[in-house]
Write a structure and sequence with these properties.
Elements: H1 7-10, H2 21-31, H3 42-47, E1 52-55, E2 59-60, E3 70-81, E4 92-97, E5 102-107, H4 112-118, E6 124-130, E7 132-134, E8 137-141, E9 145-148, E10 158-161, H5 170-181, H6 193-199, H7 204-212, H8 225-251, H9 262-270, H10 277-291, E11 297-302, H11 308-321, E12 325-329, H12 333-350, E13 354-357, H13 363-374, E14 380-383, E15 397-403, H14 410-416, E16 424-429, H15 435-442, E17 446-450, E18 460-466, H16 470-482, E19 486-490, H17 505-516, E20 520-523, H18 529-541, E21 546-549, E22 562-567, H19 575-582, E23 592-598, H20 604-615, H21 619-630, H22 635-640, H23 655-671, H24 678-689, H25 693-701
Parallel strand pairs: 2-3, 5-8, 11-16, 11-17, 12-14, 12-15, 13-14, 15-16, 18-23, 19-21, 19-22, 20-21, 22-23
Antiparallel strand pairs: 1-10, 3-4, 3-6, 4-5, 6-9, 7-8
The chain binds adenosine-5'-diphosphate and magnesium ion.
InterPro entries: DEAD/DEAH_box_helicase_dom, Helicase_ATP-bd, Helicase_C-like, NA-bd_OB-fold, P-loop_NTPase, RecG/Mfd, RecG_dom3_C, RecG_wedge
Organism: Aureimonas phyllosphaerae
Pfam families: DEAD (PF00270), Helicase_C (PF00271), RecG_dom3_C (PF19833), RecG_wedge (PF17191)
């Protein structure tokens, strides 16, 4: 149960003074965390931080005011110049003066009564806005603020600005946040005292007050204590949740797998190639982990085409040494089938029995497969989520391998391992995630990096070509096909929609068919799995030579003799995604190329991305560049790499805090694994505040 002291923060925004049904709807849309179902809370309003401030502190005379800069003038109102009836669209000018000059305060479509009340004749007022000059005459269009000179001390000279939404004004939002701040309870400090002091953090409540009531623009800076405090809170909550999940997973004793090595040797001998140095190295790490009587929780990072599948095979062979089964989980049906097809050859030679289980199996086939899994006949079970449905019982599941993990959530991943007796877990990802992101996404997981690529790979030549040269590309494609090449043609959307200029895959396939007839296949996300497989099988066999695809081919598809990939609207893809797509080629012994078709004009970031793609084939470097280029705000890019997005923290700026949070979470759990101490109790509040209810549930499950 959530502690009652948090209730004020979890009350609906509609309970805030001045927030009626209409406003509360607007706030639901604006401030709720992604995926929230039950409407915005007071907490969400408070976590909706200002994006900047209006600073009206600069006092100037009319003559001294620099053009275009926000200043506050002290003016005496002299006269009104209303437009004539015939010239309704002309503005009203209110002429005012100070000791240095005269200025026209200009209002369009203002009601005379309203103006006379706002700017009474003869009054001395403080007026803020930007001064402009025409022919030496000063004017200010729609002053942004007007107040009485006597009230100078209490005027909002520094005023915060919030991200808004249609129908919601800054003034209304400021007032709502202000009322919400009144609700802030005093909560016990959850930050470790040493960190708190060293960082000069304010309390949680003070940090929120400082950010929502800034007295200086710098108060909002992300490197100032108030902002850092909240960023740290968020990072600590997420690291605590990850550490808890990990601790629970480790609590069940693991088992030692892989004695002997006979099966492994047979499997390795079945491969038509020698392992790369990189593969040997990560396998040594994995096998050492598996041999220990604790559970393995290991992340294998390796660039596309680095050869992770073979690593998985040999890890699964090690499980078999001890008589245990392995499950290999793929994110899509295509990939599951591909893994199954690829591994079957080697498994036969190694004396391993392999079964494919997907959502498509039913009836007698499914029953037979389930039986083989339950009685231990199947050594390796490849499949999709179907592997973990309730009616799938394993004889003795010892190892779970998750491929291309970035499509699975953290908690989903942990639930997978419930099937066996605390099976080892190996997560493989093709996105070479920078260290910071690994930490944010997985917490303190062991990481193996697979460096290098199988020998004999030719580098991929990458070119960026403007869309206007589509004809050239098509004639080059013709030439390539005549020489026996295969190519991928990637388009971002399935169907043409009026709203979007994106080239539809269907339309592109039509166009290409005019040139290449039935040698063109089309695969997209809305097709059913059988049709997708058929298209890919035709491509693999050579029945088709071009496959037009939406990004469904992004992950893992392996057609080694495809040597060209054309990516339309390359400017719309993120760097990691482009690199993933490019990784579909360059898998065989042919020289390959990647054509990035873009629509001019390119923005700065898009330009930089395409340049990085042309210069580098190194996934780790590309991942670092990606993080750098993305900057804050591009949550999509972050999501792509499997990292949940943060509401407040910015990974590029708060990486140091992330490390501290990781260490602190680990330390606390080492001494207080049930979060029962006073600080542990305070941390529970933190977990609730940042929506880590799952983690609390883990605590209760014991
Ligand atoms: P990824 O890391 O992207 O999953 P794969 O496991 O699909 O890469 O391997 C890519 C290709 O490289 C496959 O065709 C695979 O058979 C081949 N391969 C893997 N290891 C080696 C090796 N040591 N030598 C030569 N080819 C290899
Ligand atoms: Mg793979």
């Amino acid at each position: 149960m959530r502690p009652a002291e948090l209730d004020p923060l979890f009350a609906s925004v509609s309970t805030v003074q001045g927030v009626g049904p209409k406003l509360s709807k607007l706030l639901d849309g604006l401030v709720s965390p992604p995926g929230a179902q039950d409407g915005a809370k007071v907490r969400d309003l408070l976590f909706h931080l200002p994006s900047g401030v209006i600073d009206r502190r600069r006092r100037e005379t009319i003559r001294g005011a620099p053009d275009g800069m926000l200043v506050t003038l002290e003016l005496r109102i002299d006269r009104y110049q209303f437009p004539s009836r015939e010239a309704r669209n002309q503005p009203t000018r209110v002429i005012a003066f100070d000791a240095t000059d005269e200025i026209a305060l200009t209002y369009f479509r203002a009601q005379p009564q309203w103006l006379e009340k706002l700017l009474p004749l003869g009054e001395t007022l403080l007026v803020s806005g930007k001064v402009e000059r025409f022919n030496g005459r000063a004017s200010m269009v729609h002053p942004d603020f007007v107040g009485r000179a006597e009230d100078a001390a209490s005027l909002p000279l520094v005023e915060q600005v919030y991200p808004l939404t249609a129908g919601l004004s800054g003034k209304v939002l400021r007032r709502s946040v202000d009322s919400a701040l009144e609700r802030l309870p005093t909560l016990a400090e959850w930050i470790e005292p040493g960190v708190f002091k060293r960082e000069g953090f304010p309390t949680f409540a003070d940090a929120l007050v400082q950010l929502h009531r800034p007295t200086d623009p710098a108060d909002l800076a992300s490197d100032r204590p108030a902002f850092r405090r909240l960023a740290y809170d968020e990072l600590l909550a997420s690291q605590m949740a990850l550490a808890l999940a990990r601790e629970r997973a480790r609590r069940k004793p693991g088992r030692s797998l892989g004695d002997g090595g006979a099966v492994r040797a047979r499997a390795e001998a079945a491969l038509p190639f020698a392992l790369t140095e990189g593969q040997r190295q990560v396998l040594a790490e994995i096998h050492a982990d598996m041999a220990k009587p604790v559970r393995m929780l290991r992340l294998l990072q390796g660039d596309v085409g680095a050869g992770k599948t073979v690593v998985a095979l040999l890890a699964m062979a090690a499980a078999k040494e001890s008589g245990a089964q392995s499950a290999l989980l793929a994110p899509t049906e295509i990939l599951a089938r591909q893994h199954f097809a690829g591994l079957t050859r080697y498994c036969e030679a190694a004396g391993l029995s392999i079964v494919l289980l997907t959502g498509r199996d039913n009836g007698r086939v499914r029953t037979a497969k389930l039986e083989a899994i339950a009685n231990g006949e199947a050594d390796i079970i490849v499949g999709t989520h179907a592997l973990f449905q309730d009616d799938v019982a394993y004889h003795d599941l010892g190892l779970v391998v998750v491929d291309e993990q970035h499509r699975f959530g953290v908690h989903q991943r942990l639930s997978l391992t419930r099937k066996g007796r605390a099976p080892d877990l190996l997560v493989m990802t093709a996105t070479p995630i920078p260290r910071t992101l690994v930490l944010a996404a997985f917490g303190d997981m062991d990481v193996s990096r697979l460096h290098g690529k199988p020998a004999g790979r030719k580098p991929i030549t990458t070119v960026a070509v403007p869309f206007e040269r589509l004809d050239d590309i098509i004639s080059r494609a013709r030439q390539a096909i005549e020489e026996g090449d295969k190519l991928y043609w990637v388009c971002p959307l399935v169907e043409e929609s009026d709203k979007s200029e994106l080239t539809a895959a269907e339309e592109r396939a039509e166009v290409l068919r005019q040139f290449f007839g039935d040698r063109v296949g089309l695969v997209h996300g809305r097709m059913n799995a059988e049709d997708k497989d058929r298209v890919m099988a035709d491509f693999k066999s050579g029945a088709t030579r071009i496959v037009v695809a939406t990004t469904v081919i992004e992950v893992g598809v392996d057609v080694p003799d495809a040597s060209i990939i054309v990516i339309e609207h390359a400017e719309r893809f993120g760097l990691s995604q482009l690199h993933q797509l490019r990784g579909r080629v360059g898998r065989g012994d042919k020289a390959s190329s990647c054509v990035l078709l873009y629509k001019a004009p390119l923005g700065e970031t898009a330009k930089a991305r395409l340049a990085v793609m042309r210069e580098s084939n190194d996934g780790f470097r590309i991942a670092e560049e990606d993080l750098r280029l993305r900057g804050e705000g591009d949550l999509l890019g972050t999501r792509q790499s499997g990292v949940q997005s943060f509401r407040i923290a910015r990974l590029e700026e708060h990486a140091d805090l992330l490390e501290i949070a990781r260490d602190d979470a680990r330390l606390l759990l080492a001494t207080d694994k049930d979060l029962a101490s006073p600080r542990g109790q305070a941390i529970r509040n933190l977990l609730y505040l940042f929506g880590k209810d799952d983690a609390i549930r883990l605590l209760r499950a014991g």
